[in-house]
From TrEMBL:
Pfam families: SnoaL
Superkingdom, natural source: Bacteria
Matching SUPFAM superfamilies: NTF2-like
Name assigned to this protein: Ester cyclase
Species per Swiss-Prot/TrEMBL record: Conexibacter stalactiti
């Protein structure tokens, strides 16, 4: 447990600005700069959803890790947006129900527990829009912890990843081989 996390069930302090911090984080994911992430994200921020993300998103905490996640998503999906539907805030915890949308324009690569390329989905050019719920904890007026529930199957279906056609399976295998080679070259 890092100092940015607390024990389950432990109530955090009142943070009147928590909702604004949470909503700003979605703007940054769409188009924020590294400097903006440094200002908003707590230095010890933990993203509990980083297990399938690139090594840069999970080998470190804080702004650099969250910024790496943003770059990973922006690379694969053009016109990336989060439409906010509802926001519930209590003390230092904010829950955001939203729809993430975009267009799949470059390979989307997922990673295994060891940070190795697990799958690579070549671009389909298709659009998607699926619902998500994000739980964001704010500490010292900054984004400090993140959990999410996403409709990944809905996204995969809309983008044509599942069920895959035989041709798309071949494209996936080639994209996976390319991503693994690129990851090894970056070591």
């Amino acid at each position: 447990m890092t100092s940015a996390t607390r024990n389950p069930g432990e109530r955090g302090p009142l943070d009147a600005g928590a909702e604004a911090v949470a909503l700003k984080s979605f703007e940054l994911m769409e188009r924020g700069t590294r400097e903006q992430f440094e200002q908003l994200i707590h230095p010890r921020c933990v993203n509990h959803e980083a297990k399938d993300e690139p090594p840069a998103s999970r080998q470190q905490h804080g702004p650099a890790a969250i910024y790496a996640t943003a770059l990973w998503l922006r690379e694969a999906f053009a016109e990336l947006r989060w439409e906010i539907h509802e926001v519930v805030s209590e003390r230092d915890l904010v829950v955001v129900h939203c729809t993430m949308s975009g267009r799949h324009v470059k390979p989307f690569v997922s990673y295994d527990a060891d940070g190795e390329v697990k799958e690579a989905f070549p671009p389909t050019g298709r659009r998607f829009a699926t619902t998500q719920t994000h739980w964001i904890r704010v500490e010292d007026g900054r984004f400090a912890e993140h959990w999410a529930n996403r409709d990944d199957l809905g996204t995969a279906e809309q983008l044509g990843w599942v069920p895959p056609s035989p041709l798309y399976l071949v494209r996936m295998a080639l994209a996976k081989r390319h991503a693994r080679r690129a990851a090894r070259a970056g070591d």
